[in-house]
Write a structure and sequence with these properties.
The chain has 377 residues and is α+β, with helices and mostly antiparallel strands. The chain contains 11 helices and 12 strands.
Length: 377
């Protein structure tokens, strides 16, 4: 009986020692330090977490320049005795390099669902294979199994400035895509990450925002509508939002901004007559600055005669806005090719600008516009 108790005790002790050995202890890292890098592509977060080796051997101090690719990092698969199989490179040092993405994306044009992946690479001289594996929590590539691949893509490495520490960087950042690159020694390996439905993600976020506190301010509805119009997306719902901005209890407001927002949607939907009537209604509620902004919109769309008509209306409604009115007339007459009238209005604007502090910041640009006109006569 006593012998049995002793045996059980020894087994438990051995198990305890093994567990502690597996868990290990935490000490300062002297090499291959861990790095976590995140980049947002709009609402989409992309993260890569890796351990970063350096070109210089941390133990011997040897400069391994020229000995990284094809030697320290073998070409193709390489055999590891512990794993008893051929494995790819773990794209870093020590534990798995882990790639995480918060939403579905395209990698080099191929679909990759949102999730967490082990990042492995098959290194070749001219073209590499990038592997996103469903196994992200094993140690290195020792347990790599091709059956767990979520995606493979092919990319071409390029030359880059010398990089001592293996580094991941986002070398291109756009509103709907980014390029993540592994850089080490004199090599860069770019991987393109695209968000194909970026505007749909924003629309979903707008819906959520507007159902909360943001929805009690009509300006937020206008901005949401403008986003849809500018990106030609979700127009039917944007029209509903426009009616909310105008009429809804507590926050609806019948003003230039809300009427104009609805008019923009109607124009996008091809309902131009309705939009025209609504813009006329909007002008009756507009301030001088709002009319001026509408004129600039017309000028940017090469609707110069319509802009002149609008600025004439503004001058009659707000004659006290001398500088604004004459700047607008100067710009529209320049667009219409009437230099004489444009010069006259710039001179009137400049004469009155010192009395208007809100226009002082624009004084140099006003003077430059007048100078160019006079020199072009």
């Amino acid at each position: 009986m006593k012998l049995s108790i002793i045996k059980v005790t020894l087994v438990l002790l051995i198990c305890s020692l093994n567990l502690n050995a597996q868990n290990g202890i935490t000490l300062p890292e002297s090499q291959n330090q861990k790095v976590s890098l995140s980049q947002w592509i709009g609402l989409v977060e992309v993260n890569v977490t890796y351990n970063s080796p350096n070109v210089t051997n941390p133990r011997s101090g040897e400069d391994r320049t020229g000995k990284i690719w094809g030697e320290l990092v073998p070409y193709g698969f390489h055999f590891v005795t512990f794993a008893n199989q051929m494995i790819p490179w773990r794209a870093g040092a020590q534990t798995n390099t882990v790639f995480t993405v918060s939403h579905d994306v395209k990698i080099e044009g191929k679909n990759l669902p949102a999730g967490k992946y082990g990042l492995f690479m098959i290194v070749e001289k001219d073209e590499w294979t990038i592997i996103f594996s469903k196994d992200y929590n094993s140690w290195g590539a020792l347990y790599y199994d091709q059956k767990e691949d979520a995606l493979r893509v092919r990319v071409k490495p390029t030359k880059t400035a010398f990089t001592e520490w293996l580094t991941y960087d986002f070398i291109e950042r756009k509103s709907d895509h980014a390029v993540m690159a592994l850089k080490w020694e004199y090599l860069s390996v770019p991987i393109k990450i695209e968000v194909p439905n970026i505007n749909e993600l924003y629309v979903n976020k707008l819906r959520s925002d507007l159902r909360n506190g943001a929805g009690f301010e009509y300006h937020n509805w206008i901005e949401a509508i403008d986003f849809c119009v500018n990106n030609n997306i979700n127009l039917d719902e944007a029209l509903v939002w426009a009616d909310y901005a105008i009429n809804r209890q507590w926050f609806g407001n019948k003003n230039y901004g809300t009427f104009s927002a609805k008019a923009k949607v109607l124009e996008k939907l091809g309902r131009n007559e309705e939009a025209k009537l609504l813009r006329e209604k909007a002008l009756k509620t507009a301030t001088a600055k709002e009319i001026s902004n509408e004129g600039r919109r017309l000028l940017s769309n090469n609707k110069n005669k319509e802009a002149l008509k609008l600025y004439t209306f503004n001058a009659k409604k707000f004659p006290e806005e001398i500088v604004m009115i004459n700047v607008n007339f100067a710009k529209v007459h320049t667009a219409l090719g009437n230099k004489k009238k444009a010069i006259k209005h710039w001179e009137i604007a400049l004469k009155n600008t010192p009395d208007r502090t809100d226009h002082q910041v624009y004084l140099p640009s006003y003077k430059l516009a007048l100078k160019k006109l006079k020199e072009s006569k």
